[in-house]
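Support request, please re-run this one:
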Amino acid sequence: MRRLFLTALFLFSLCSSAHAGELAALFPETVGALPRVELIAGPDAQAEVDKLHGKTLAAEASAIARYAVPDSRPAEVWVSRVSSEAEARRQTGQMVHKMFENPKSPFKNPAREDHNGLAVYRFDGMGQVHLIWFSGDLVWWVSCAPADKTPFLDALAR
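Re-run finished. Output below.
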């Protein structure tokens, strides 16, 4: 029984690592004029996602990339693969709803935009624009300078 458990655990970790590698491959080396300066995948990325939300989220894998030029605030891209497109839609809707409904939220001026056939939810806050969408079983969040919005959407929202 113990051997079966350890084998299952090993196979799960291989599968999780493969998903993390697939997600890391989604991030281009540069977006617009911004080079990628950091890439986090696997358990470290999932731990950051869970910490950001203050709870464990149902995700199969996550990855985070940061893009910046020297002496500038980095743009951040967060992506998580969840169990299905329906779950991605649910998680995206829940995030947007909580941001919209919370009077203490730092996220303001909500809007829905279409980009490459995807519904992208935009908020302003903390000196950046925040873009949230799902595509298939992936949930995306981008925080960037307003001027970098279109290059990030062109690179990632497909």
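The first strand starts at residue 30 and ends at 31. Residues 1-19 have pLDDT under 50 and may be disordered.
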